[in-house]
Amino acid sequence: MSNPNKLLRLGVGAFLICLIILPDRAQAIPSFSRKYKTSCATCHVGFPKLTPFGEAYRLNGFQMPEVEEESIKEEPVSLGSEGYKRVWPKAIWPGSIPGTSPVSFRIRSGFKYVSQEDTKYAEFTQPALQIMTGGTLGEDISFYVGAHLFEGGEVGSLDRLYLKFDNMFSKILPYNALYLRVGQFVPDIVPFITNHRALTLAAFAFNTYAPSMGSNFLQEHAHGAGPFGIEAFQLGAEASGILKSRLRYVLGVINGNGVEEDNNSAKDIYFRVGYKLGGMAYDGSSEGDIYGPKGYNWAEKSLAISAFGYSGTGVSSSKDVDFSRFGVDFNLFLRDLNLFGGVITGTDAAYVGENLQEEKYTLFFVEGNHMIYPWLIGVLRFEQADPDDFDSFRQITAHITALYTANIKFIIESRFDPDNVEFDNLSLGMDFVF
Q1: What is the pLDDT of residue 21?
Q2: What's the predicted TM-score (pTM) here?
Q3: How would you class 11 by CB atoms within 10 Å of its CB: exposed for 0-12, middle for 13-18, buried for 19 or more?
């Protein structure tokens, strides 16, 4: 007789496949699983959200902290003898490339129900196809490329393409003290609440909101068009580092207009500095048992607190205008509960005729992720924006992620106005990577 639980799983899976997911923006790299012959769950909880170990792996240039050589199961192709290092500069410094093509794909499409005032529809959405590749090119050189091949029924765009030089000048500086990323990337201003590693379909307004939007959170993540968002893809260079295992800094210089043609010659600058108490440190080191009584790799007890800022120059009426973003955030792990949030203030400027006008706002949010089971995660997020010239705007996002396998997940999500709770939108679906 067939196993009833297996039949139930197959039935639920077949139903949800018919309600294939609304596209989201996050990233996961199954090619890393092939490189180390390990599960996606080593670095992710309900992909693409990272575990503390996965975050240390990302920060360390896609290298296993402290045990990279022992962990690799797919040998790279050497580009030169190790002996070249001893005779440099009379020889080219040796490097390597991945042993097999490190390409991964993500496939998503969707079904969405909306019934709001004059907008009412229930429909399948256009599918999205992403291609992702990342890895190392020898010792302490890493790379990442991410592109949307198809999205919203149209040919997509190149999102990120960068080289990262890791542990630079390690004979002079402490190990992990200096990393340099060059190319097109998302500035590492709010790394643990990025829309590219979020569980929810709804983007974090923390990253995308601008005063000109008034009572509206719906910009979602920016590709360089529309109001400025601190998570827009940018062209530039970014230095970062880890000091004493638990203190991390980021400094960046970028064009400041996303991936569109830049509208002036000024460069934007940003910074982030944070400290982590308890749990796994930024460099992957730890003290004592951090996985809790059940041994789960997300179940640490830790608190990370950070401050960040962004200062840029845009254009209004053919004149340069300055804008800024400053804020603080926290990330708290209490075993099966991950609670995080932050406050950000923003100032934009624009010319109205000959008069320069400033627009300001304050926004805060808090989100809780509860690991109900290793395969089932509940999410609840509250956000509120307070622009100077508009009424406050609030939003609650409720979400459930259910893993069918480590690389296939089902999602249900809805958003609410806490001042006028109505069931007027719902997204269901599936997301898978390989």
Answers
A1: 32
A2: 0.86
A3: exposed
